[in-house]
Amino acid sequence: MLDIKFIRENSNAVKEGLKSRNSKLDIDELLRLDEERRKLLVEVEELKARRNKANNEITAFMKEKKNPKDIIADMKVVSQKIGELDKKVDDVDRNIAKFTYIIPNIPDKSVPIGGPEANKIVRSWGKTPTFDFKPRSHIEIADMLGIINFGVATKISGSNFVLFMGLGARLERALINFMLDLHTKKHGYKEIFPPFLVNRKSMTGTGQLPKLEEDMYKLKDDDLFLIPTAEVPVTNIHANDTIDEEKLPIYYTAYTACFRREAGSYGKDTKGLIRVHQFDKVEMVKFVKPETSFDELENLLKDAEEVLQLLNLPYRVVLLATGDISFAAAKCYDIELYAAGSDAYLEVSSCSCFTDFQARRANIRYRQKDTKKIAFVHTLNGSGVALARLVVAILENYQNKDGTVNIPKALVPYMDGIEVIKPC
């Protein structure tokens, strides 16, 4: 969340930031509540000072054997008034908190202004494959090879679920292990295997709630949610912690399944692996000092890119515009893989810097070494990467005319030397 003091002192910048996001939140209403709260607090403090003075007078009266009944009667009225004002302050505090939890982060100045049409392609890598035949879609390939069965997944769970089989399941597992090894052994991340269910406080801390609750899977009898991404449990490892500066930066990586209802997305890419309710992903999360966070974002992006470079998959990096970045992000890059059968670029990673937005919500702070001052960390996360669409790109870009699929060289050791996926 944004600091109310920051909003008060930079109201015009906050309004411009919200305008660039196409947000219609009325910051003036929040400022009105803040002003009301401060006036109430002044009134409460004056009454409490008056009460304290009266208590001293009552003590003096008692020592002098005088009757302080008039003062006591007056103080009963004052105490009642203090109670009424305290209740008003509590009510205003709740309204302020409710308001601040729905204010998105302010985009960094380096972010292009506009909607998706203003997104900027930063760079591209690799060559798109060419074929002497019409490339098939991943759905056709998976059916020919018997490695994914969408029909049985629908029977088991419903539409937009996936059942990997045989070498399809093996490919999924190989990709997970390959990415975890890369991030832990080369990039310096510590591996985490977190719970797949989290509480409301954790979802609120990373910014999924309250805004995106309709897109989440919630348990009926418990206030728990299936995670939409490992970002949620991994970031909340340090909720309410104060970290010593010398321990920063902290890098974590985690494999989890991810679950998303995507309530507003029905009718879009409903076939195959493009848009599914459950998918696997390897995530990277960073806790860093504020002055390093945007440099850390560039390094996070490179770590995600290396996954695709080692798999020799063509991609492009897109800097998202203000109207397209997520609720909590101050700056975000998407990595989009090219898939030959679809002749389209598919998002497989979002790498974001949240500045202190999540840290304020989850109360993640650090103690500065020299001054001992307590400040909020900056958090970052990035997909390293999401598997459903990664599998799409491998199947479609590495396909052969006979319907078989070559395994990227970097994955062969993780497939026990299997170099080609043939029909099961």
The CATH homologous superfamily of the largest domain corresponds to: Bira Bifunctional Protein, Domain 2
Number of domains: 2
CATH top-level class of the largest domain: Alpha Beta
Listing every helix as H and every strand as E from the N terminus to the C terminus, the arrangement reads HHHHEHHHEEHEHEEEHEEEHEEEHEE
Tally of separate helices: 12
Shape: elongated
> What integer value in Å does the Rg equal?
27 Å
Description:
This protein has 424 residues and is of the alpha+beta class. It folds into two domains: 4-100, Orthogonal Bundle (Helix Hairpins), CATH 1.10.287.40; 116-421, BirA Bifunctional Protein, domain 2. The protein has twelve helices and 15 strands. The protein has helices at 4-9, 11-20, 27-63, 69-100, 138-145, 150-156, 167-186, 200-206, 231-235, 293-310, 357-362, 387-397; strands at residues 120-125, 190-192, 197-199, 224-226, 242-244, 250-259, 278-288, 315-319, 331-339, 344-353, 365-367, 374-376, 378-386, 405-406, 420-421. The strands form four sheets. The chain has an eight-stranded mixed β-sheet. Strands 5-11-12 form a three-stranded mixed β-sheet, with no helix packed on it. A two-stranded antiparallel ribbon has the order 3-4. Helix 3 packs antiparallel against helix 4. The model has no long low-confidence stretch (mean pLDDT 95).
Secondary-structure map:
Elements: H1 4-9, H2 11-20, H3 27-63, H4 69-100, E1 120-125, H5 138-145, H6 150-156, H7 167-186, E2 190-192, E3 197-199, H8 200-206, E4 224-226, H9 231-235, E5 242-244, E6 250-259, E7 278-288, H10 293-310, E8 315-319, E9 331-339, E10 344-353, H11 357-362, E11 365-367, E12 374-376, E13 378-386, H12 387-397, E14 405-406, E15 420-421
Parallel strand pairs: 2-6, 5-11
Antiparallel strand pairs: 1-8, 3-4, 6-7, 7-13, 8-9, 9-10, 10-13, 11-12, 14-15
Helix pairs in contact: 3-4
